[in-house]
Amino acid sequence: MLKAGVLGAGHLGKIHLRLLNQSEKYDLVGFYDSDEANAKKIEAEFGYKYFNSIDNLIDAVDMVDIVTPTLSHYECAKKAIAKGKHIFIEKPITNTVEEAEHIRELLAQHNIRGQVGHVERFNPAYLAVKDQIVNPMFIETHRLAEFNPRGTDVPVVLDLMIHDIDIILSVVKSKVKNVYASGVSVISDTPDIANARLEFENGCVANLTASRISLKNMRKSRFFQKDAYISVDFLEKKCEVVKMKDAPKNPGDFDMILQNAEGVKKQIYFDNPEIANNNAILDELNSFAEAINNNRSPIVTLHDGTEALRVATMIIDQF
Predict the structure, then answer these.
(1) Whole-number Å distance between alpha carbons of 297 and 294
(2) Which residues are in coiled coils (predicted)?
(3) Which of 85, 112, 139 is the last residue of a domain?
(4) How do residues 213-267 score in pLDDT, each as one tens digit?
(5) Residue 154: C-alpha distances to residues 56, 119, 136 (Å)
(6) Which of 89, 112, 135 is the last residue of a domain?
(7) How large is the C-alpha radius of gyration of the chain?
(8) What is the mean pLDDT of the chain?
(9) What residue ranges in 15-124 does DSSP mark as E strands?
(10) Do 172 and 191 have their domain in common?
């Protein structure tokens, strides 16, 4: 089992502590948090060992799970890498693209593994259909959340939209050509609602909307490709696949047939993939352990995290 330590014991950090403690792939050694009063309260309530310094924790583990505020990701990652420790780092990978690229360079120099916490890659609804998303040419995403002060230290693009940016970059095998975006600050000092249009070199277009001042929660993505429409509800863990194929010469009474202006007939049929129950955060942490133990590339690499941040930064620069 890999010895694991957590940096940061806020809302998400406590979830990571609980899941690492449950995991059969890790031995949770302990955690560090800059808020000593909060850390000692967590230690007393849950029994996780509190380390009074980052260095002491890093020295005691094989893998460092960085769940601190984004602004401190870079310094935490540098400390861990300098000591030869594998790093799992929450999204966004760092505060700037330059920091992310430097972290990638350091990781390569020390020949260790790193994974970024883009948890939607492990969402069961997405996993059920990801192999059917092939060369999408139009994508539409909506990620809306009710207001929560947690996360408002960064623009909504880095807080919410970056999840969808990562998913889009993982399925569109082409470079981003143009970015158009607008954002509005309503409650925070940074934009709380944003819309972006990404145009790729292969002709694909993605339209993304993110808001943290919505009256309801929504996390939906729609993928349109040749002869197929695929919908993923990341919040409700549901998906829908609608496909078309050439209509049979003698369709059945209940077959759905469409005919276009040229007289071409297509049959519409629905595919309801089986969705397996899972804990996406536990799965992403366990997948990182497997990558370390088997000396293979993680599912969400630091390169992936860097590219998602790069596009997010391009969007923010348009505001």
Answers:
(1) 9
(2) none
(3) 112
(4) 999 999 999 999 998 999 999 999 999 999 887 777 777 766 777 777 777 778 7
(5) 29, 19, 30
(6) 112
(7) 22
(8) 94
(9) 26-32, 63-66, 86-90, 114-117
(10) yes
